[in-house]
UniProtKB/TrEMBL annotation, chains A, B, C:
It comes from Streptomyces lacrimifluminis. Pfam families: Gly_transporter. It is found in: Cell membrane. Keywords: Cell membrane, Membrane, Transmembrane, Transmembrane helix. InterPro entries: Gly_transporter. The keyword Transmembrane helix applies. This is UPF0126 membrane protein. Belongs to the UPF0126 family.
Amino acid sequence: MIQQLFNPSVQHTLDLVGIFVFAISGALLAVRKNFDVFGIAVLAEVTALGGGLLRDVVIGAVPPAAFTDLGYFVTPLFAALLVFFLHPEVERIQAGVNVFDAAGLGLFCVTGTVKAYDYGLGLTASAALGLATAVGGGVLRDVLANEVPSLLRWDRDLYAVPAIVGSALVVLCIRYDVLNPFTSGFAVVTAFVLRLLAMRFHWRAPRAWHRRSTAREDESAG
Amino acid sequence: MIQQLFNPSVQHTLDLVGIFVFAISGALLAVRKNFDVFGIAVLAEVTALGGGLLRDVVIGAVPPAAFTDLGYFVTPLFAALLVFFLHPEVERIQAGVNVFDAAGLGLFCVTGTVKAYDYGLGLTASAALGLATAVGGGVLRDVLANEVPSLLRWDRDLYAVPAIVGSALVVLCIRYDVLNPFTSGFAVVTAFVLRLLAMRFHWRAPRAWHRRSTAREDESAG
Amino acid sequence: MIQQLFNPSVQHTLDLVGIFVFAISGALLAVRKNFDVFGIAVLAEVTALGGGLLRDVVIGAVPPAAFTDLGYFVTPLFAALLVFFLHPEVERIQAGVNVFDAAGLGLFCVTGTVKAYDYGLGLTASAALGLATAVGGGVLRDVLANEVPSLLRWDRDLYAVPAIVGSALVVLCIRYDVLNPFTSGFAVVTAFVLRLLAMRFHWRAPRAWHRRSTAREDESAG
């Protein structure tokens, strides 16, 4: 049982911050898609809680934390309200939102990996579920908004790789029995910084070979 | 244990009616999308059973009722057949279908909330899952049909709000210990009537502030 | 307990082959949609493991086999790498891939049905889940790629029907107590051959009556 990496109240606060910023990204997309106030709230909830919900259903941790902790449920509603009333201001600080989103990504890939391992999964499976925890909410967000998940698109800065690195660091720490608040904090920070660098320098992953010249850039025509 | 609000056979009949009308809405969309007969059956099943399936997986009630009660599974197939052979006639009575759909909405938000509470969830979480039970099938229907979920669109009459009110009434009744067939029946009827009024008077929810003037109305251009 | 129909290592090898070819189909769609290398890997994993994951979550077999057997997880990554480097060659042998995909379809509808029955579901529900196991990954693949699931489209050769026949044969065998490696092998082969015939002769399912003349053929305009 290694779940309490951090002081419980510190962990809980970090979780709420991550949930809040993920919810902001969902609510902003909802505004861009012209959804009404309930659509904004639904997309905020799904984006913020979807990854953890997916993980908990898969590992059999039901009812999922999203439904047992009132703070987890209410936080996205605050984010939705904020965006509803102040979305031009929130969009103007998009860069700041992206920094928080990177923090959420780093945090959730680590806590997701640890929770999956705690429920008896193997190291590789735990890392995969940590990744799913970190990116699952965003994928559900894009599916509900009827868009190609930004995770999968080649023309977006690296998003999965920082989470993969974070999850991999955690399973390495577990493997060599050195997982503690410092090493897991290091994994969080590594994923966070990698994501910031990817945004700053527009790091992208390669597409399939021979594809670059022939592909139509406009995938909506596909 | 408060699950048997109504006489079991009454409850079961109501469930089947709700499942049937939800399935009709799925099958009609499938016809409009030009799906074949199996696509019609799949969309009918998913629309009718998706919300309850989601709820049961989340609360850990597996295998879900959708897979243990043969009537739940077969009813959408009848709806699919009916629409397959008679869809112009069914579309002509769309107004009637909408009334039944409103009844299904009212019924499922109430029974979904009660079942979630029975499985140990808190009041807020139970209401949220009741809402998910009522609207989840329709969201899955629209996702599979590759459309923006009509639940999220600002240009559709209120759909979530009646279900939220119904679920909220149920948790208030639970909170004050007055849940019985009469009060829960009242919650069903309230959600039902609110949905009918929303359709009759085209009640809509607001979009984000400043958005009304600048948004392109055609979201498919988004 | 009837799960071990075949010699365990034979069964496992067959599973891996099915997973591999399903992953190829996901990876090829990802290349066509112009996804980057991580998008290719994600779509390969989801296509290959999604159907079984869905089944295991519904029947309560958590953590799902996809997360407890390392081979299940790693095989789609090999398929993704292969397509990433050699996709023109893989597309050229598309016909061969389709044959393997048909084999995966036949195999998974049978093993999915048997596993669902083993977990206590009724015969009809087991057949339905067997079908979901066989086609679920492909539906998730198309939803993530933001396309109308090819399963639902009338202009694609029959895909669900062979799986339905295979699942139905299995539940008939269970019902009459004659399920054994030979009869279940016969069900696999029947589904496999039906799918091959459907591709060879372009068998299609009918759309709703009156629809053929009036429907716009271009559903993307819908």
